[in-house]
Amino acid sequence: MSVNTTEAMIAARRLLVVDDEAVQRLLVGRAASRMGFLADDATTLEEAVARLGRTAYDVVVLDLGLRENDGIELLRHLRESGTDPMVVFVSGFDERVRQAAARLASALGLRVAGTLGKPLWVEQLVALLRRVPETSGRRQVTGTGAIDPGRLAQAIEQGEVHCLFQPKVSLTGRRMIGVEALARWRSPEFGVVPPNLFIPLAERAGLIDRLTWCVLRQALGSFRRWRAACPDMTLAVNLSPLSLTGLSLPEQVSEALAEAGVPAASLVLEVTEGAMMGDFVMAADILTRLRIRGVKLSIDDFGTGHSSLLSLMRLPFSELKIDQSFVRTSLTDPEAPKMIRAIVSIARELDLQLVAEGIETADIAALMQHLGCVVGQGFLFAAPLSGADIEMRLKDCTWVDEARG
């Protein structure tokens, strides 16, 4: 086998079809191959779990009925696999059952491309596969069993944790209006450690503040250079709920901004709804003082918690991010656009900047714009980029990714 052929096989997108009917596996496999996927198949839950343990797939086509098991059982394995494939449900059950499965998958943090009935129409499957982004959403699987708090603390101190930046883009003009800083850890012995592994570890081990300040200072250092090209852009940094317990936080943020020479109005701190579920009075104290100092506040993952409206009423948020579970299913779940339209109305009434995150296809971007969203974020516009890549794309503030947009 030639080097070029090997490289092509490594670069090709991979699809796994999990179905106990041979004809269905054959139909899906042939359709996937015509679209450039390398297709594997599994007939049982055990076989599918084994394949997922060996290979990172871009798409999993899943039958909800697998002999003595059901396809729902595989969703938990997908969530824990360290990969992030798009999921397509194929089933003879009625649409309500298929949609319930899709909503469950989204609630587990999985990406759902859509649902199809049986007998399968290949044209419908092809249409769904066309929505799978060229840039893979897979996360690298690494042997991270030996990671402990001491090793993570060492990584923070030695600079192994770094920032990538995902653009926030105007949906009308494709102009980059801001970036979100994302923590990434590349370890010499573990490789790329997924954030969903090391961030919860940092929270459990009492290291989350050290991690947050590491990310904030790195991000502000890069952002200071970019403001010369685009002075109106903003920098967003995630704030853990556990950080909303220290009353000195507003002063520390102000000091970090002053050291970097970045105005407070350029910084957006993103907090999840869960941040207000603990000591609400303490969180309100800290967040209100941050706003008084000029820092903007964004409520992240809006719509996934039962405190959403109460939080918006009581706290001085300036931005609202629609949870990606609504955005990603907006073309396949008839309830999702209704929810998004309602959230858009709330944001307008409260004069909040609105961001739709998780935009992965041009069709979803068009729908978000039609529903009233003006800012988007997701793989359609860019995967998380290095600081150097952001600088290259900031020549005139009219950032457009020609490969996608």
From TrEMBL:
**What Gene Ontology terms describe what this protein does at the molecular function level?**
cyclic-guanylate-specific phosphodiesterase activity
Decide whether keyword Phosphoprotein is in the record. Answer: yes
Task: Tell me the keywords, alphabetical order.
Answer: Phosphoprotein
Q: Which domain of life is it from?
A: Bacteria
EAL domain location is 145-398
User: Any idea where the Response regulatory domain is?
Assistant: 14-133
Q: Which SUPFAM superfamilies match?
A: CheY-like, EAL domain-like
Q: Which GO terms describe its biological process?
A: phosphorelay signal transduction system
- By what name is this protein known? EAL domain-containing response regulator
